[in-house]
């Protein structure tokens, strides 16, 4: 009788231990129903004080979280695919990931980063891909603008996104086509009023100091992510510190004579040896951008994600996690970057090599990091002024938007120094 009872207890115990201990969130192309919301789940788990394992290059960069009913409920509500796994199944996966023969790595995500988005209140005439995907993925963020930046409030945040912006004080170079448009006139007026409120005579001078504050934020250990014109205009503002490059219709006086030769490329983050576009009638800042130099048919417009060693270079591997290595191209005021003008110490994460253009780049500045992503909206090939924003529920598996969310989670990771 006792022996039979003991065997019954053993069977019950073994059944308990066989129960699923983990929730596995696949990120491959075949099994994940909503890649974008999966990032939101990972952020939400981190915000609850629970750590997340990010399995780089395993089934598209999958996530592993504890099997807790609250998390399971959230996965179901948000429509994110998951699998329940036992301790033995997870041990087998982690053993494979750790194998020296596999280009995979386990990265521990520890704390939900505090996110700020640099954006004006009206932000006309553009919507913004980053705020759209953060909202869709249900990742909280705080809006900041010039007043907050100049008063050092960036120190409160781990991650900063720069909305479609012009840090050179030339109002986006929209002068030729939109100088009589009501939205342009109103935005110019608001910018001038804000600059005066903050004690500046010119918008260009105020934007320069904002760029310098953002530079200091990165150098001090922050992570800065920028898209479209916020990329090259930011770098141009740094390189033109103390030099007037704005024409009279932008700041009321003539630009400085010979300003091209006064640009200090040592001050910039990513670009060098570029030539500024002087004419206010040209919708372009400099030779950095590839928009007018491209000869690619829309159906053939793709960029390739570079392959890195997950064990030796986990940082670029994290930033490139995806369920495909070939991503649809998309345009913007700054569509992509002329490869020869990207600094040698900046890592190209995604490129169209045949066209000599870098689409997605990353670098280190001081103690911090920056990522520049060319183009305006990964699911809207040629977004025009006045076009409606993208409905992300129609693109839940967007590879282009996944790259943005890789950057959002990046500050949560326990990092190792990269070798590249």
Automatic annotation (TrEMBL):
Signal peptide residue numbers: 1-20
Domain of life per record: Bacteria
Keywords for this protein: Signal
Protein's name in the database: Asparagine synthetase B
UniProt lineage: Bacteria, Pseudomonadati, Bacteroidota, Flavobacteriia, Flavobacteriales
């Amino acid at each position: 009788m006792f022996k039979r009872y003991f065997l019954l207890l053993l069977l019950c115990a073994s059944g308990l231990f066989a129960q699923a201990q983990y929730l596995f969130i696949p990120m491959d192309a075949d099994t994940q129903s909503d890649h974008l919301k999966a990032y939101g789940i990972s952020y939400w788990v981190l915000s609850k004080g629970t750590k997340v394992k990010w399995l780089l290059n395993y089934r598209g960069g999958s996530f592993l979280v504890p099997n807790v009913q609250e998390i399971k409920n959230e996965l179901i509500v948000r429509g994110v695919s998951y699998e329940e796994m036992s301790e033995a199944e997870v041990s087998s996966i982690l053993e494979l990931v750790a194998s020296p023969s596999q280009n995979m790595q386990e990265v521990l995500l520890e704390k939900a980063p505090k996110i700020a988005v640099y954006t004006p209140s009206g932000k006309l005439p553009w919507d913004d891909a980053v705020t759209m995907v953060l909202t869709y993925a249900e990742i909280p963020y705080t809006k900041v603008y010039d007043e907050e930046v100049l008063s050092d409030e960036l120190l409160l945040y781990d991650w900063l996104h720069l909305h479609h912006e012009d840090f050179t004080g030339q109002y986006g170079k929209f002068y030729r086509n939109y100088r009589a448009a009501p939205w342009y006139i109103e935005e110019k007026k608001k910018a001038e009023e804000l600059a005066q409120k903050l004690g500046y005579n010119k918008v260009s001078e105020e934007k320069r100091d904002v760029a310098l504050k953002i530079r200091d934020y990165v150098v001090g250990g922050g992570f800065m992510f920028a898209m479209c014109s916020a990329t090259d205009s930011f770098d141009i503002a740094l390189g033109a510190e103390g030099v007037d490059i704005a024409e009279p219709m932008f700041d009321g006086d003539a630009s400085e004579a010979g300003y091209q030769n006064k640009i200090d490329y040592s001050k910039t983050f990513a670009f060098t040896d570029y030539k500024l576009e002087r004419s206010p009638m040209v919708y372009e800042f400099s030779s950095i951008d590839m928009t007018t130099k491209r000869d690619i048919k829309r159906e053939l417009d793709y960029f390739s994600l570079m392959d890195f060693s997950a064990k030796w270079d986990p940082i670029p591997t994290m930033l490139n996690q995806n369920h495909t290595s070939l991503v649809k191209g998309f345009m913007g005021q700054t569509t992509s970057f002329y490869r020869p003008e990207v600094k040698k110490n900046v890592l190209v994460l995604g490129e169209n090599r045949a066209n000599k253009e870098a689409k997605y780049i990353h670098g280190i500045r001081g103690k911090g990091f920056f990522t520049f992503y060319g183009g305006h909206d990964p699911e809207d090939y040629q977004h025009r002024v006045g076009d409606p924003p993208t409905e992300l529920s129609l693109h839940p598996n967007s590879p282009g938007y996944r790259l943005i969310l890789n950057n959002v989670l990046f500050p949560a990771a326990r990092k190792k120094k990269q070798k590249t």
